[in-house]
Specification:
Largest sheet: 10 strands, mixed
Shape: globular
CATH superfamily of the largest domain: Spore Coat Polysaccharide Biosynthesis Protein SpsA, Chain A
Distance between the termini: 38 Å
CATH class of the largest domain: Alpha Beta
Strand content: 25-35%
Order of helices and strands: EHEHEHEEHEEEHEEHHHHEEHEEEEEEH
Helix content: 25-40%
Strand order of the largest sheet: 3-2-1-4-10-6-11-8-7-9
Number of strands: 18
Structural class: alpha/beta
């Protein structure tokens, strides 16, 4: 079994800390380790270094090399341009396919927070058993929702396929992408709906068959890369990878195939994708505030205050705010609007304020 860590995102909703040159996955957002380091450490309990791959952008390769010194350099793939998750997963899958067509490949993201690492390891082990039994299926992982999140996708369970004491397996009834708050609230109270963290598992020969069927042009390009060199020289990737269609694997393949299974679980997961999720996963004082420097907080509740300069933070009578200070920016938002930080980034791009990106 192999695993690939997708580490090519830009993390615009965690601006101004996450920037184009230093996106969230290579930053210590929570604690002293970066999100990438935490993900690698979590996986290293189950996988040898030779069985872990990372794919990232060309601007972040040095950070990945420095932060993961035990990972073989040949296991780090560099995207010359972004081609979304279908491009990233396809590139690594085609490499694994050359070595062993019957290998099982799991894809995870570099920016996840998981509360129960041991349970996560058991979850991945169980996925290997499922794929061996159902080699022509795509396997998803569902996470029990803990609150009404409108920024995540949801999976609705169908019938139980495999009865197991831990981590039973279900077929998938449908996907719901980023529902409105009223609908998300209903999902949280139901036993049939789970967050979709975007983790997948396949036997790679089946995955390549899916590429051939649903993304034939991408399949041909990936075949050219895999035939040209078993070591996948960066020169060949730089030439061929930009020709791939840029599309998420969810839209390109998952929505078109019916042979999908899901393992629901409760492992304390969160996508560290915006400032509300950072607040949810961080230590809090008795009033629900998270602050990373000296502070005087009077009558203030459920706030997130982060300061790179470590200035004293003083507040009176404020609630549910996030204040993030960097050397050149102060961001102040209501935590309920955390998903909308990306619109500030869009505004900066449109108005040629690149120095803040």
């Amino acid at each position: 079994m192999k695993v690939v860590i997708l580490a090519g995102g830009t993390g615009t909703r965690l601006w101004p800390l996450s920037r184009q040159s230093k996106p969230k996955q290579v930053l210590p957002i929570i604690g002293k380790q970066t999100l990438l380091q935490k993900t690698y450490q979590r996986l290293s309990v189950l996988f040898n270094a030779e069985d872990i791959f990372v794919i990232t952008g060309k601007d972040h390769k040095i950070d990945v090399f420095n932060q993961l010194p035990k990972l073989p350099k040949k296991n780090i793939f560099i995207e010359p341009v972004k081609r979304d998750s279908a491009g990233a997963i396809g590139l690594v899958a085609s490499r694994v396919h050359v070595d062993n067509p019957k290998e099982i490949l799991i894809s995870v993201h570099a920016d996840s927070w998981i509360d129960n690492d041991k349970k996560f390891a058991r979850l991945l082990r169980s996925s290997e058993e499922v794929i061996k039994k159902y080699p022509k299926h795509t396997l998803l992982f569902g996470i029990k929702p803990s609150y009404s999140e409108t920024g995540y996708g949801y999976i609705q369970l169908n019938t139980k396929v495999v009865q197991r004491k831990s981590f039973p397996v279900y077929s998938v009834k449908r996907f719901i992408e980023k529902p409105e708050l009223s609908l998300a609230s209903k999902f949280v109270s139901s036993k049939d709906y789970f967050w979709n963290p975007g983790w997948f598992a396949w036997r790679v020969d089946h995955l390549m068959d899916l590429f051939k069927k649903y993304l034939p042009k991408n399949y041909s390009i990936l075949e050219r890369i895999s035939r040209s060199s078993k070591q996948y020289s960066q020169k060949i990737i730089n030439k061929e990878f930009p020709k791939l269609k840029s599309i998420a694997i969810d839209y390109a393949i998952l929505e078109k195939t019916k042979d999908i299974l899901v393992i629901p679980s409760d492992i304390g997961w969160s996508d560290i994708g915006h400032w509300r999720s950072v607040a949810e996963m961080s230590q809090k004082d008795k009033d629900g505030n998270t602050v990373d420097t000296e502070s005087v907080l009077l009558g203030s509740k459920n706030n997130l205050f982060m300061s790179q300069s470590k200035k004293l933070i003083a507040a009176i009578g404020v609630e549910n705010l996030a204040m993030i200070e960097t050397r050149d920016v102060i961001l102040l938002i209501n935590k309920d609007k955390a998903q909308e930080v990306k619109y500030i980034v869009d505004h900066l791009k449109k108005n040629n304020l690149k120095k803040y990106l």
